[in-house]
Amino acid sequence: MDARKASKKQEQRISKNMTKYVEPAYVQKASGAMFHKKSDVISRKFRIEAKTKVKPSKSITLKKEYFEKINREAWETGRIPVLTFSFGDGQDYYVLDEHDFMRIVGDWVGQVE
To answer: Using CA atoms, how far apart are residues 44 and 31, in angstroms rounded to an integer?
Structure first.
């Protein structure tokens, strides 16, 4: 599988799982090819940038520029930025900055109590 196919598969998986468990989400078509089509997956509350390995791996490089990009795109649209990555094995991990993590967990804990 090439990198484009692996990325598309990951984006579709994220969109499907977000829609099933959180809120409706869609894959941004041509997100990497057009300047006005930003982020990979979008929902009402989140903008998600997805990174994956093509083959299963024990490590992945996450660059600060990935976080800066998704933070900017989310800020411009009033959404929460999330960086999602996979080691190429079909399991996705979600990364938030401290402020957004505390806000989401605080909201969740408030609902549980």
So the answer is: 17
